[in-house]
Amino acid sequence: MNRPPFRGFRRTGLAILGAAVASATLGTAASAAVPPDTSRAASAGARTAAVRGCAVVYFDLGETLVHTDEGSRIGYMPGAAAYLRTLRERHIKVGLITNVPPSWGETDAERAATLKKEIDGAWKGSTPFAWEDFGDRILTPRTEAERKPAPALWERAKTQAHGCRLVYEGETAEETDVAASLGYVAYQTGRPSRPAYLPAGMIEWLAHGSR
């Protein structure tokens, strides 16, 4: 019997699901700004965002929101489900920037559909992963050259932001450093003596600061 592709995929330490994120402190995160997009559509969106204030929080997936156990089953990282629920209740948009094989589809939507199938097929626990929160904001590499930590996925997310403040949360410093260099508020998850995720109140403060 052929081995399911996602099983080997998980054994590589979820490198394909998206490794990492940067080492910004809360103070650095609060001061990061998103450079303006010069396109006409983005400028119009930026004016709208400036009136109401908004933020979009992008996450890495593996070992940031979901964890793989030794049996290759996956589930929420501690606190992840509650955190997503809090962001949902506060009407803060979320997205994923995660590495998957480009062969999983021709478009982000096709690759996201395969990712959902693989995740759901190995999911443990009674609470399913909250895919509906992410909408069409699941960005994946179109080519091997776009795989993180290459900046392509973060740059693509910026073109869709319409002037909103952008946050990136992930578990490794390499990726959060790249995100911060591109103007994201970057927060490295899973570090001792600090919140598991960037507090929702801080994200709301950042959003209102974009007015």
TrEMBL record:
InterPro entries tied to this protein: HAD-like_sf (IPR036412), HAD_sf (IPR023214), TAT_signal (IPR006311)
Record carries keyword Signal: yes
Signal peptide residue numbers: 1-32
Keywords: Signal
Keyword Nucleus in record: no
SUPFAM superfamilies, per the entry: HAD-like
UniProt name for this protein: HAD family hydrolase
Native species: Streptomyces palmae
